[in-house]
Design brief:
The longest helix is centred in the middle third of the chain and has 24 residues. β3 and β4 form a beta hairpin. The chain has a four-stranded mixed β-sheet. It is of the alpha+beta class and 104 residues long.
């Protein structure tokens, strides 16, 4: 499966747009890591626990989008976009979406 963050397929290959596909996840850290992250805000710097949480959440959301595209019979997803929002203290929602396409 090709995942492309562009508005078109290079090489002029013909394709059929199958529709929008998306994946979403709400992810949180456990209390211990959340507490340690709050301590890190006192001294500054990267909060590695949250970085890891967001990387994992993006991977899960992307997999869910790919699964949805494959269920439609897609060969690729183009014009992929990611978004995130804070749902509550220590939890974030990640959404990824794009257009599923099938090559002709």
């Amino acid at each position: 499966m090709k995942l492309l963050n562009i508005d078109y397929i290079p090489g002029g290959q013909e394709f059929e747009a199958l529709g929008i596909v998306k994946g979403t996840v709400v992810q949180s850290k456990n209390f211990g890591k959340d507490f340690m992250a709050s301590m890190k805000t006192l001294v500054g710097g990267e909060i590695v626990g949250y970085t890891e949480m967001l990387v994992e959440a993006r991977q899960i959301a992307t997999k869910r989008m790919v699964d949805e595209a494959e269920a439609l019979g897609a060969d690729a997803v183009v014009n992929i976009r990611y978004g995130s929002s804070s749902v509550m203290q220590g939890a974030a929602e990640i959404i990824v979406y794009g257009t599923a396409v099938k090559f002709l």
